Amino acid sequence: MFLLAITLSLVIEKVILISVILMGSLGVAMYSTWAERKVAAVMQDRRGPNRAGPFGLFQPLADGLKLFMKEEIIPIFSSRFLFVLGPSLAMLMACMTSAVIPWGPDILKADGSVITLQVADINIGILYIFGVVSLGVYGIMLGAWASNNKFSLLSGLRAASQAISYELAMGISLIALVMMTGSLSMRDIVEQQHGFWHGGWPWEGGWFTWNFFKQPLAFLIFIVCSFAELNRAPFDLAECESELIGGYHTEFSSMKLGFYLFAEYINMFITSVILSTMFFGGYNYPGMEWVAGHVPPVAYAAIGVLVLMGKAIGFILFFMFIRWTIPRFRYDQLMNLGWKSLIPLALINMLITAAVILYLQN
Questions:
Q1: Contacts with 111 (C-beta within 8 Å, 6 or more apart), sequence order
Q2: Of 309, 307, 275, 311, which Cα lies nearest the Cα of 288?
Q3: Which pLDDT band holds residue 207 (cuts at 50, 70, 90)?
Q4: What is the pLDDT of residues 49-81, one digit of tens each?
Q5: How far apart are CA 293 and CA 291, in angstroms?
Q6: Three-state DSSP class for 92?
Q7: Which of 19, 207, 275, 289 could be stapled to 202 by a disulfide with Cβ–Cβ 3.0 to 4.6 Å?
Q8: What is the pTM of this model?
């Protein structure tokens, strides 16, 4: 009975955590649409959404209701099953990537047990994320092919080739990070970036334990590849309106279109969290030891979650800033950058990292 009670308690904790992460991801994705319009408005010297509620905060709710209430249209000559499966798969894969992310420090309960703010701490967390992200491209390809539309098909081909090209450079850049940390577990990578700072100069106490300072080139390659993987400008060739109408979701309407749009923003949020986790310490921040000794465990964990969310929001705003700053690449420029620049740079960075590790070991 005791074992059953522990198992049931663990299941309840994980279900609650999964629900919070899922609802939080949907909420961030929903208000990312509002933030994108506001960032664009600031950069273009206009107001943006300002009529639905104060500062236009109810605009995402109105947009979601509009998509939900629209008529479902399925083209006559489309493959009906795959047409519905495409956006569903894209949305499912976008939500699954958050399963291995450590969202905050562990919470120590009064009975001595620990609540882990991570759905699954598997020792191949990075490989899991790459596998799920790779499957997410199938949602775009299936929807594009099933639409029986030549513009959608071209968009699907672009999305597939773009994902293949930039996943290589992204993976090689992370090999250097894995070589340095010695682990594929996201939790281990975050814990290794925890520095002890007791005042004084930053370099005296561990601020520079973050992987960004150890692998700046890997970070640069990873974030450039992230733009391509997310189909975000200046690499939004799969949705190029001036050439392909709406891209792979040209024939989609109602919530199927909403799934594609939401999947894009959820992917942007999760990618921002992964960037914060891999290169900027995750939920770590200077002075954690002092905070841990002066606040309750729940408040300590909540502060860690807020720190991680703050870093992720910074990356989200950066993605939006780039969209309204840099013009779209041509397709040949996109391929040349991936194969002729980023992959060689990632290989060189990996070899330099290996040489430094070998030298330090000897």
A1: none
A2: 307
A3: low
A4: 888 888 889 999 998 888 888 888 888 887 888
A5: 5
A6: helix
A7: 207
A8: 0.91
